[in-house]
Design brief:
This protein has 3 helices and no strands. By secondary structure, the chain is mainly α.
């Protein structure tokens, strides 16, 4: 699925230079950057959301309900 992507001139120059140096097309390089970036963003957001998850019941409540707490 093609997309139109506008890049600043300095980034376009860096991408062209990297394409020449590696022999990879600019499209391949952009696809790799997006894929790596999305994977990193997913990991970051999953870690962030895991830290904010709150249990529905407190540990004290769970212990009382199980008969192990006071």
């Amino acid at each position: 699925m093609p997309h139109l992507l506008r890049l600043p001139r300095d980034l376009e120059s860096r991408l062209e230079r990297l394409s020449r140096q590696t022999g990879l097309s600019k499209g391949d390089l952009i696809e790799r950057c997006v894929s790596d970036g999305v994977a990193e963003l997913e990991a970051h957001l999953l870690l962030e959301s895991a830290g904010t998850a709150r249990p529905e019941r407190s540990i004290d409540q769970l212990l009382r309900e199980s008969g192990l707490g006071a």
